[in-house]
């Protein structure tokens, strides 16, 4: 280590579900030239930077620590600047940071399709039967909770207009479920994906009983989820992502409700599971 | 200082040579700057990345080596210890080093990945020289180089080769195996010396090799760029060409990132983060090329455009169309934003520099050694018009200004040497590309790739598109290189191809086309 290489400053974080985004500020990145920033982390606040605690290296001033699971996790991070000569700065930090907890852990399931397990194998046509989608689901999915089954009625892949194999058009999935009474507080929609298209994951417009509730830009994936369905497999190239957002109580009714997922932009996304939860 | 030596040391003398008063020492550059001496402790076999020379001038040339006893060490430092090391060099008129004319010392520092770039001065114009390095008790392979002819002197001939786009993972460098046997004065390397993409089973088409997981990552940090250069430079044919001929190189986009423009990444990276990436990419480029210290990077900036002369025969303007270009237009409609008079692919300062270079040139030939296709290429074979926004077509006003300068200064023999597209193409540069009857004001030779895109084929899905442009006279989709022979009377260009590169490096070479461009009569006349 060396006092010549300045340490980074202003360590901050943002916690998401299963991830923590760490950010910092670089000081004098060109004198000496920064080779990279190395981020070390551990659940143990007393940890020391070592190959075993290396989270990742980057030339950016941010790094995403992923794969933390749906439960809330607290980690401690230190950032080391490595210069062109291979010298280290003093480690900056530690930064105490936590991920957010998924409603699939903290909430009560109201209606779900599939299991939230980073696999889409229980869904229709999984893991690679997308070519049958146009014939099996010419009008998209229409799933009635309690009657339909994931393996027959909810396709693993939700195509978009960029998918020639699915007619180069928008596709709408509908998820119908019953509520014994209209809720007083918002519910939460959890949409877990095992993968999306790498460059054009597109957007999903979500509405509930005709009320628009979100227009979600999906994260870029790895474009392998159309062919394989287990993101927990060792060395899996899949890049899962999570969408969890409120379903306003004002949009929900006693009795039959319908959530509509409209893919009107981009290419496909591949489901892990989908569900409505009561966060209380 | 640096007067030709009367002493003619043998190999044993060179091993004993250290700390001589007539040495040129500095941080990797060989400049006489009283730099702190390095050590002499060097791991065994440190010259595994070979030797090189480049940018010849009438009385000087730059030499290069990078000490790396373990080239693929994942920290990018090549297995070198984290301290400076003395590297001694000597230059001789003969391959056995019986007539040594220069010797010196440079310091290989970890800051520059233990690369050295000594600029050897006081040489005689238009001559062949041999050089070698010593570090500790280790001696490098012998390299051959040459100086440029005296300024303004009459020169009968310049022979050169063009190469570009060497995606190591797509195939063997068979083209370099053959190029190493050619008798050329210079190699012009026209961009994409390395690629930043992750290397894995999806793109590792070069058979008989494997790479570790450290290579299966998109290159963004300095240690990754250094490792990537080391991987590509382990190729013995590439090393041999570097050792036999001085190179004059420029970069394109993949030395940093696909399709970048100035400080703009096309992958959503902020300017601040991307400038840091550009800084490490430029540093690694300098460390691995035979470049003069005028090209030593300063943070995210590096001066690569420069000019060389070959007597009165040729002025070579080496361009950088990446570092200063305007970003992609938001609207790529033909005739739209890409024709904005304010757009520039060279940047204002480099445009001015090129304009002045053309204005003052007295050479028979004016050569632009550069990256992306200069000729207009309409990519719509139907009635519509589509242009690449990554090439000069994305900056038509800059091209117009260049062509106006060529006509204004009476540049009769303009030749653009280009890479980028992984295809051989020969084209005529027209005063008005939309009017086939307009004057031809120059010639463009586009060399195919050495490795990128694998085997290739004589024709492919782009053949029709390119040949639909009437000023395009030739197209071939295989790997190879171009040989050029320039005399006061004519430029002869031979397009060389190898039939395959993925299986092994055994494919023979053949000439698929030969053109002649007569001095004073721009354009292409096909001879074979």
UniProtKB/TrEMBL annotation, chain A:
Keywords attached to this entry: Lyase
Q: Please name the GO terms that the record assigns under molecular function.
A: lyase activity
Q: Which InterPro entries match?
A: Galactose-bd-like_sf, RG-lyase_III
What domain of life does the UniProt record list for this protein's source? Answer: Bacteria
State the SUPFAM superfamilies in the record.
Galactose-binding domain-like
Identify the residues that the record assigns to the Rhamnogalacturonan lyase domain, covering every copy: 113-273
Q: Which Pfam families match?
A: CBM-like
Listed name of the protein: Polysaccharide lyase family 4-like protein
Give the organism, scientific name. Prauserella shujinwangii
From TrEMBL, chain B:
Q: Which InterPro entries match?
A: Metallo-depent_PP-like (IPR029052), PhoD-like_MPP (IPR018946), PhoD-like_sf (IPR038607), PhoD_N (IPR032093), Phospholipid_Metab_Enz (IPR052900), TAT_signal (IPR006311)
Phospholipase D N-terminal domain location: 49-147
UniProt domain PhoD-like phosphatase metallophosphatase: residue ranges: 160-495
Signal peptide boundaries: none
Domain of life of the native organism? Bacteria
Matching PANTHER family, A to Z? ALKALINE PHOSPHATASE FAMILY PROTEIN (AFU_ORTHOLOGUE AFUA_5G03860), PHOSPHATASE, PUTATIVE (AFU_ORTHOLOGUE AFUA_6G08710)-RELATED
Name of the protein in its database record: Alkaline phosphatase D
Please give the organism: Prauserella shujinwangii
